[in-house]
Amino acid sequence: MGRVREVGTLWIGGSLSWMEQLCLKSFVDRGQQITLFSYEPIPNVPAGVVRRDGREVLDTDNFLKYEKKDSFALFADLFRLHMIAQNPGMIWVDTDVYCLRPMDYDDDHVLGFELPGESRVNNAVLGLPATGALLRAMLDYTSDVYGIPPFVKGKMQDDYRAAVAAGSPVHVSQQPWGVWGPMMVTHFTHALGLAGKVQPLDAFYPVTFPDRLKFLRPAAVAESIITPRTTALHLWASNKRELGLRHHGVPPVGSYLEKLLKLHGIQTEAAPIKGRGKRVFDAALIDRLDLEEVASFADVGGTAQSLALSAWAKWDCDIFLIDLDHKGNWPEAASPWVAPYTAFLTAQGVPQSKISRIAAERDLRPVDVVANLSGFGDVNKIKYLEPVLQKLLQADTRMLTDIRKGSGAYPLLNGYGRCETLTTREADGVPIVRALFRAGPQVSAPAPKDGSWSAIASGLAGADGFFRESPDHSFLFIQRSDTLVVTFDNLDIAMTKREDRRPWGFSFIEKQGWSMLGVMANGWTWYRDRWVWQQFDDLRDSGFFQRFKRVVFYGASMGGYAACAFVPACPGADVVAISPQSTLDKTLVPWETRYHTAWGRDFSGPYGDAAQACAAAGRVFLLYDPYESLDTGHADRFAGSNVVKLRTPLLGHRLGSSLQQMGILAPITLSALNGTLTEAEFYRTLRARKTFARYQRELFKRALDRGRPGLARKLGRWVLTRGDNRYIRQGMLSL
To answer: N- to C-terminal Cα distance for the chain?
Structure first.
């Protein structure tokens, strides 16, 4: 029985895709310890993977790349040598290497031939004696970034020598792919007479690079090639290109890769493939959407399947398929793209109830995100899109769109907002820009008369209240009783997404007969406007808050931040904050990656840092999901003794929506605003989540991610004997 070895790998480049998650988790699930080195935080590493700082191995900020392919593989080629030298016995594996069975090789030489003929050696799996001749030779060779490789063709060596003579030696980043990888390993292995130490082809590379697409064919194809000697299986990350271009970033149904994903409980929609080398896929556009929440996503023409899937996975949003032909007509029967688009989404776990076909102008509604890829303004005339845009756009709508030079798209879109160039390309010699369009406030501005917010708010205030406004914010006070609730909301949401066009919590507070001070922001401002601060100073100094026996500040997310930040205007008031931010000051929360739109705002002053400001409050009820790492980071900054932290596991950042869907937001809020809420009462009420589909799904996923299939199976049986949960029902098929 050989010794089971620890393996190590490196990741540079942000979050993992499902392919890296699958490979990392395979080692955990097979019982082989795996260490992931990195130089920056990675938000979605599977549980059980050991994390270490890459600077323990190479303390550098110079991440070498193969420039022609825009790939960090060159740095990884160097890193693995130093990792092995500093961690004797550790085996390197690329992040696209899958653990079929633990590697228990006794010999410190662990490397394999990658092609028939047993000549070329790959380094995707690499174990070497830490003081051996092969490792020493490669470390010496890679110490010179201008070294002339003795294993490339003679003419290329001559060219490199000529470049040295001319005073411009060729840097390794400009040399051929694999020059510090398989080419170098193969050369020194044979030069040192170590070919006998190399494992046969089927140990790691039974499916060779030329045959790599067999992983995308029916599972039996790859399984017929894999042998009992196969331990770590190279899945070839270059398959990402094929997946991204032709399969919307997910493996075909019935393929070997899909089988592995089911085996290890990895969800493709949660970690999409966003690119390969210089090729960027549509799923990567999700990172360009600078929106805190998205409730609705519309695809005009059906060309953004992977983006729709990513949006649903991130925000649990509704997906609208705008079934419009190339001349802007509404077809009587569904277009040919609608059925396969829907089938793709449902096969990836999107509930059918989340998908709607829009086939008439009367059914259009304002949405948060629009996809218009390779559509109007590119291959179709932009004029046919305008009637649709007029119905889809609201203030702060984002649209991802392709714009062909000379199409007239820019003049049209500039009338509704502004465009930011993301990428450019050429087709038939004509430049095409992929742009992020941001709608301006004018597209959904209320009618200037009775339908305006000013008119609505003035009417609600009545004779005993007041309404104050600036270009970006407003204060609405409604007098009812000696209990006052101060709420914070986004005017765009109130005016475009609520039929009654009332501030958040309005009806609930009205039913209790409480007074209300509604503070509205015209956009995602985080209320960082001196005018807002002056209003709170004035209300404090004029004795406004002293008229009430009880005052509560109440808000969620951006509004939760404000509820905590502005409570010093009424010392002793209670706060109810749902998923709040503490600040967006990057010097205080450098790990916060959301809400780019507000990063440049001023978060200083007495109403700046909510975590500090809320020390003036009576009690602060802070509701958050402890598994949302960024929300937890903010919650940890609220350290005062007056803070009551109420954990809502696995309900996400938009937990207010989840609590409402469960029917328990109202009683929890009522108790909190009344001042009678206790932790015991809260957690008793929260038991309702046991029958909530989202919570069940997240719990099931977590059990699988932790390598507890037995626990997942037990949970699945409990859920399915009491009702249906499509996600769990499908997941149970692979257990």
So the answer is: 29
Nearest to 284 by CA among 267, 306, 317: 306
Structure tokens belonging to residue 501: 């066009």
Question: Measured between alpha carbons, how far is 165 from 137 in angstroms, rounded to an integer?
Answer: 26
C-beta of residue 67 within 8 angstroms of C-beta of residue 23:
no
Identify which of 701, 691, 564, 551 has the alpha carbon closest to the alpha carbon of residue 623: 564
* Structure tokens, 438: 């941001």
How does strand 398-404 pair with strand 369-372? parallel
Strands (E), 12-120: 34-38, 50-53, 91-93, 97-99, 110-113
Query: What are 603-657's pLDDT values in tens digits?
Result: 988 899 999 999 999 999 999 999 888 999 999 999 999 999 999 988 888 787 7
Exposure on the CB side of residue 464, measured as CA atoms within 13 A: 6
547 token code pair = 């008229």
pLDDT in tens, 103-150: 999 899 999 999 998 899 999 999 999 999 999 999 999 999 999 999
Strand partners, 319: 297, 355
Sign of CA dihedral 413, 419, 425, 431: positive
Q: In the Cβ-directed half-sphere of 574, how many Cα atoms lie within 13 Å?
A: 22
Dihedrals phi, psi of 664, to nearest 5 degrees: -120, 0
Please tell me the distance from the alpha carbon of residue 466 to that of residue 707, in angstroms, as a whole number: 58
d(CA 467, CA 459): 9
E strand spans, 512-651: 515-521, 550-556, 574-578, 620-624, 643-647
Smallest CA-to-CA distance from 480 within 547, 430, 387 is with 547
What are the backbone dihedrals phi and psi of residue 51, each rounded to the nearest 5 degrees, phi first?
A: -110, 135
CB-CB contact of 12 with 42 (8 Å) = no
* Token duo for residue 652: 């996400």
